[in-house]
Design goal:
The chain is mainly α. It has 6 helices and no strands. The chain has a single domain, classed as Ferritin, core subunit, four-helix bundle (Ferritin).
Amino acid sequence: MGSTFEAGDIFQIAVRIEENGANFYRFAVQVARDEETKKLFERLAEEEEQHKAVFRDMLAGVESHDPPEGYPGEYGAYLRSYADNNIIFSKEIMDREMAGLNDTLSALDFAIRRELDSILYYHEIKGFVAQSHHDAIDRIINEERKHFKLLSEEKKRRS
């Protein structure tokens, strides 16, 4: 397997990132201490699920990339593991950081950092895919920026 990602790879990882993000926001609902913030986190969890669907649609519109596999599903398992263990919302990092979340502000700070990490990841990964796929990746970046803005506004409201 080469070191260059296809746009389809990026979208598969994006689907996994969104799944992990939705799981975090569902956890954050339990940490938040006021109803308004709980509702924000519930909404963001729903939006992450919607983004996952959008990214799956983007994936469907990208030329298929079928690398050689040692067994059926090997490549998909690799991408899921990559998303869980090496990038944004990795299980290990999430578990460690979520253990320290004990109030609304800490949950907001964590979410803001993860959204910024997502934006940076998608921006940087553009260097690994063909120019023709940059517009689709920019759409992903814009979705993450919307979340960052909502979370930042909520944090500012609390200051």
